[in-house]
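Hi all, long-time lurker, first post. I run a small reading group and we've been trying to get comfortable going from sequence to structure in the token notation. Rather than ask abstract questions, I figured I'd post a concrete chain and ask someone more experienced to write out its structure so we can walk through it together at our next meeting. Sequence below, copied exactly:
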Amino acid sequence: MIYDATVWFCEKFVDPRSRTADQMVQAARSGRQNIAEGSRASATSSQTELRLVNVARASLEELLLDYEDYLRHRHLPQWAPDGPEASAVRAVAARYRQDQSGRPDLSDLSDQQRWSLYARWLDHADAAVRANALICLIHQANYLLDRQIAALEEAFVSEGGYSEQLATERLKRRSQERAAPAARQPPPCPKCGALTVLRTAKGGKSPGSQFWGCTRYPECKGISAL
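-- Answer (accepted) --
Happy to help. Here is the structure in token form:
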């Protein structure tokens, strides 16, 4: 909704030839796209999700400053955070949930249905009303993103995501495989029956590979594969 409202705000109130219009639209789009991509990445990598959500948060912060600049440069009033206008915009979602009465959840509404809840501000003929309403919505979005980022950071530190867990398991498996030969009982030499020890090949076809070598080497050159 912030992205759509920004596109239409710029079309109506900002010179389309200016860099400001393009920057505002791109910042709004970046916020939306990175939230969506972060959500898709959540199933595989907490690190990727965290990075994308942080990018979204930064993009919306940039957009917030653009709206504040728009009001200030034109000597238009900015609503007080605890004023009646800003409070009315912030209360829309809470009031909808309280009065749900069998209606679908906000997340299940169509774009048009969600827009209708804020249309009295976002379709207003006064640019100041639209800009102030969007400032309120961006503050709400940033508050929620801050909470999401904090939760993602905690989850990543404690357990990581799916790909991080796979990497941990892969390293654990490799460590176990390297330790396994040393833990096994060495077999007798296949040539003379003497004890064998774990050795590492220094040359030949497989340098670095391990094998069981006769303790009577070099008199006996018997070996056994792992």
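A couple of things your group might point at:
The chain has a mean pLDDT of 87.
The first helix runs from residue 2 to 13.
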